[in-house]
Structure formats: C-alpha cells, structure tokens
Design brief:
34% of the residues lie in helices and 37% in strands. By secondary structure, the protein is an alpha+beta fold. The chain has a 4-stranded antiparallel β-sheet with strand order 2-3-1-4. The protein is globular, with a radius of gyration of 14 Å. The chain starts with a strand and ends in a 9-residue tail after the last strand.
Length: 100
C-alpha cells in the first residue's frame, strides 16, 4: 500500500473559485482503480492551507492517477493559485485498525 500525505499552501482569495475543480477531481479519483481513500481538507481558508491524505493499493495505481485526465484539468485549474507544496509518498508494510 502507498500513502501520500502533504500540505499545500495556496492563495486564500482563490478558495471559492477552486472548490468546484476540487470537488470534480475528488469524485473522479474516488472511482479510480486502486484508490482506497482520497481526501483534501481545507485547513485554513483565511491562510490558504490544505492537507492531502491518500491511500493507494500500489504505486502504479497512484502514478496512473497523477497521469489521469481529471488530474490534468485540476492541475491546470489550480496552477495560478498554488504557492507551495510539501507532499511525501510512503510505502506501507503493515496496516491494522486503531482501537480506541
């Protein structure tokens, strides 16, 4: 399994303009082969900070996602608003349920 976690900083004035592109991209991503979960959460609308958390069956599935038409459209839509990104990919050897 592959996990992707990242922080994206963007122009907060663009939040409302970007929301439809974000919604469309996430809906298409959830339907992709190999997508176990995919979430982009706006952490601060006033500061323009979002967190990305993804789980994929394989790195090949994740790479195919990056090359998908809906990601190309999304990347085009956000290109002028993104100020910085720190996104990491992790290989997971074991997963278990967290009991609270």
């Amino acid at each position: 399994m592959i996990i992707v976690i990242g922080r994206v900083e963007y122009d907060p004035a663009a939040t409302e303009r970007l929301q439809p592109a974000l919604d469309a991209m996430m809906r298409a991503t959830w339907a992709e082969s190999g997508c176990l979960s995919y979430s982009i959460a706006i952490e601060s609308r006033s500061e323009g900070v979002a967190t990305v958390v993804e789980r994929w069956k394989s790195e090949a599935d994740m790479r195919a996602h990056l090359e998908s038409p809906h990601m190309a459209l999304f990347n085009e839509a956000i290109a002028d608003a993104v100020r910085g990104m720190d996104v990491k990919i992790y290989d997971v050897a074991n997963e278990r349920t967290l009991a609270l």
